[in-house]
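#lab-general

N.A. 3:47 PM
ok so I finally got the sequence cleaned up, no stray characters, all 320 residues accounted for. can someone with queue access submit it? mine expired

B.Y. 3:52 PM
send it over

N.A. 3:53 PM
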Amino acid sequence: MSNVDCEGQGSKQEAAMIQTKEDGGLDELDVFTFLICFDDRTKSIGGGLNMAVRESKESRMAPEGVASLDGAVYIDQYCNPLSDISLRDIQAQIDSIVELVCKTLRGINSRHPSLAFKAGESSMIMEIELQSQVLDAMNYVLYDQLKFKGNRMDYYNALNLYMHQVLIRRTGIPISMSLLYLTIARQLGVPLEPVNFPSHFLLRWCQGAEGATLDIFDYIYIDAFGKGKQLTVKECEYLIGQHVTAALYGVVNVKKVLQRMVGNLLSLGKREGIDQSYQLLRDSLDLYLAMYPDQVQLLLLQARLYFHLGIWPEKVIILL
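B.Y. 4:20 PM
back already:
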């Protein structure tokens, strides 16, 4: 199993493989009617997702580049409407992990400033050595004590992307494992940042002086999928087997993180068998188009999909 992210690695199945209910094609009027009927639904989904991102940033005083746990939980809830999933419950589970990390950290440095943090604080520790102690404690608790690990055996499983399942099963793929790692680190004062690295989502940890002009070599890159291993630039390239430009080592904002997460679900949805309901594909299309409503190819795919499933506009309006 190659150590890659789901994005871009799914089936090559194209939208044209999904035939419409009757004649295998849609005319312009059909598509136009469909898009009008689903416009309000898309706005509703987008409003919920954007609100999750906005509230996350405001409530946590987080910079734009920090991945949003709130948005990831919203995605989880939308794709699993029959499951009892709440941000409060997921945060409580993460807080329990933070408590274990603090217990381990106390054994490393009983006077560590992170031990004095109160719940909900957004303080950051600036000393590299103190940050390193936190990461050492995190790696011990997550990977040795709680046995979290990257899911290499069942990589292309949507459960790897749902945060409540990552916590229950203690496994995931690079982006979900990174989001968990990032959330814990920031609660303990370590300012890690998300990196939308091709094929394998990473985090970066600044080693340069505050205020200095930095380049990609002033960071250590953390592979949460690989038990928190700390990587150099060269090792990152070795990880995916190719050279990449410096721009791909840059931090990404909340929306880009969620886009990649939903994009992974979309790739997995396209791999579903033709005898299934395409529920994952339907949900991921809804979410992706809520963030990027002008993606014409995906709009056409959504239209073809719903017509294929016999979900005609007039019926959908009644259901909504």
